[in-house]
Amino acid sequence: MHEMMFKTLLKPRTALILMFLILFAMAFFFDDASTIYHGYIAILKSPSILISDYLEIGGLGATLFNVATILLINVIMISFLKTKMSGPVFAGILTIAGFSFFGKNIFNTIPIYVGIYLYARLQKLDFKSFLIVVLFSTGISPVVSFMIFGIDWSGWFRLAPFWNYWIGIPAGVLVGIFTGFVLPALSAHTIRFHKGYNLYNIGFAMGILSMLFSALFRSFRAIDLDQGGPTSEAYHAELMVLTIVLSLIFIAIAYINDPRVHKKYIGLMKSSGRLVSDFIRDYGRSVSMLNVGIMGLLCALVLWLLGFEINGPMMGAILTVMGFGAFGKHPRNCLPVMLGAYLAVVLTDYTFDGIGMMIAILFVTAASPIAGRYGVLIGILAGFIHVAITPLALVFQEGGFNLYNNGFAAGFVAALMVPFLEALTKKNNEEEEE
Questions:
Q1: What's the CA gap between 407 and 205, in Å, rounded?
Q2: Share in percent of the chain as helix, strand, coil (round to 5)
Q3: Predicted local confidence at residue 316, as pLDDT
Q4: pTM of the prediction?
Q5: How confident is the model at residue 199 (pLDDT cuts 50, 70, 90)?
Q6: Per-residue pLDDT tens over the stretch 83-109
Q7: How far, in Å, CA of 271 to CA of 288, rounded?
């Protein structure tokens, strides 16, 4: 009986609570309360657009505090809504935690949640039914911070500086609510564009909204859209240890729940990963947690082999990949697209000097279902094309309001490749039948 109770406690939700405790404890281990407070205020007051590395802005302690609090708030929310822990929910929470290293904070996420809640009320639907959209919606949260802290409203209207907040806060909140309000309907339509082969579907929907905001802001010369800051690699060792520790915890939980879990893992690896691939539903929580841990170790290994150092955006990518270990990603469908992305940089004029190409090596896994469905060579090609498209996708979204820029790029990769691949596959199948 005690063994059964012990195993019941070792669920994905429990793992997330344990993750919160580790992050919270680490924050106060590395910095004192005063340093964390001032760093956290700096994070909240940052425009937060792509790429705003909170490690550079607020320091390690404040960043870990930001990640921990955002993680806890969302775990409490899903518990309050009595939502069953599924693959998409787990992926959404870890993605939120990851992007809380660069771009997301409590101040810029709440208005978007409110907008989705109002949409649910208007449609007379349960807010719980939009939970997946809620969890992934905050990828466009920088638009809220930018409206408040990135625009000099007093200069615009020739007012005293204190008017900045009087105008900026209502403007930011209203834009956030509007964004949340339109996102559920928009994301429901964009999945048809890539047919489920882009795991970051809501990132693609937010890319479209980001294009709209960028176009509007670009129309006003007084607004400076280039406010992204430098990254910090000063905490590489600490974050590498954190990645490995979290990965091993998830693997340990998997084996405690089921000592023979590795024998069931083969079934998950055969999945294409195409939306909606809920690994917790289809293969069980033990197999899913094993895959989450393995994906974390895979990320650490790839970064070590390439000699990359972890900063805020890179840590965000790692946690996102780990989260999607319960929702579509596994080594078999991720490695081909990662290899394709690497070859694209090596064989072209692109370099790993900038953070964009470095994080693309991990975020390219948004297109992993293409490799899972059509094989290694097609996966390599998809990764290659993804790298070519990613910088152009960012140009369309000048201003960096969509933190999921790679999700935007992956949508175009899938839209370009999948119709041709489906037609070719259909033709081959017809020939075999004849």
A1: 9
A2: 75, 0, 25
A3: 94
A4: 0.91
A5: low
A6: 888 999 999 999 999 999 988 999 999
A7: 12
Closest CA to 330 of 384, 289, 284: 289
* Burial annotation 287-320 (CB, 10 A radius, 16+ → b, else e): bbbbbbbbbbbbbbebbeeeebbbbbbbbbbbbb
* 210-261 pLDDT per residue, tens: 778 877 777 765 566 565 678 899 999 999 999 999 999 999 999 998 999 9
Q: What secondary structure, in 3-state letters, does 265-300 show?
A: HHHHHCCCCCCCCCHHHHHCHHHHHHHHHHHHHHHH
What does the alpha-carbon distance between residue 272 and residue 235 come to, in Å, rounded to a whole number?
35
The residue to which tokens 């939502």 are assigned: 83
Give me the numbers of helices (H) and strands (E) for the chain, helices first please.
22, 0
Cis peptide bond prior to 361, omega within 30° of 0: no
SS3 for 8? Answer: helix
Instruction: Please name which of 120, 140, 20, 135 lies closest in space to residue 88, comparing C-alpha atoms.
Output: 135
Residue with tokens 């400076």: 224
CB 12 within 8 A of CB 85: yes
Beta carbons within 8 Å of 193's beta carbon, 6+ residues apart: 204, 411, 414, 415
Per DSSP, helices labelled H in 31-162 are 33-44, 54-58, 60-80, 87-99, 106-122, 131-137, 142-145, 153-157
Residue 136 one-letter amino acid: F
> pLDDT tens digits, residue range 321-342?
999 999 999 999 999 999 999 9
